[in-house]
Design brief:
five-stranded mixed beta sheet, 191 residues, 7 strands, two-stranded antiparallel sheet
Length: 191
């Protein structure tokens, strides 16, 4: 899939799998996604470590590797967080914590590079039809009412809409954004 900016074209990897996107080191978008289940005594110990590795460590190390190249190109980083960064979701403590961490990693990096020729932002989509949604299986014995809370009254967010927002934040037209996290969640975090 390709999205066009006024001054450059950036390539975005397919959004149906966890991916990291580099476009000639001019723009960098991280799109990790790993969901885990509850904090319960019977869950496997690694249920919390995979989301940490995929949702937070991977964007950190990818950004660290990309930043020297992005500085040379006056580039941009766009991290893909989640509406789960801003609301507690039952049975998804590790996912919520890592996505909130990614938002704050974005802000911390933006502060660190405030005086450098790079922009660092994030987007926070709500539910989308991705590998996470397709493979979603509620935990055994869960309270379905708690899951409905973040299902979204307006339905899912279109993957292409999120890709368009990422492309916009990566291009020069978004030069006023730095350290921002833009929600695109069909109102899930509205209240």
């Amino acid at each position: 899939m390709r999205r066009t900016c006024p001054s450059r074209t950036i390539a975005l990897a397919p959004w149906r799998s966890p991916s990291r996107v580099l476009a000639g080191w001019m723009r960098c978008a991280t799109s990790p996604g790993s969901y885990s289940w509850p904090i319960r005594t019977r869950c496997r110990p690694n249920n919390g470590t995979r989301p940490l590795a995929v949702n937070l460590s991977a964007p950190f190390f990818l950004s660290r590797a990309a930043i020297p190249h992005l500085l040379a190109a006056n580039g941009a980083i766009v991290n893909v967080a989640s509406s789960a960064a801003f609301i507690g979701e039952a049975y998804a403590a590790a996912y919520c914590a890592t996505k909130a961490g990614l938002v704050n990693l974005t802000k911390a990096m933006a502060m660190e590079y405030m005086k450098q020729p790079i922009r660092i932002n994030a987007v926070a989509p709500g539910g989308m039809i991705t590998n996470i949604a397709v493979n979603f299986r509620p935990p055994e014995g869960c309270d379905v009412e708690l899951l409905k809370r973040y299902a979204g009254m307006r339905g899912v967010v279109e993957v292409d809409d999120v890709a368009d927002l990422v492309a916009y934040l990566a291009c020069d037209a978004a030069r006023g954004y730095h350290g921002a996290c833009l929600s695109i969640d069909a109102g899930i975090t509205a209240g």
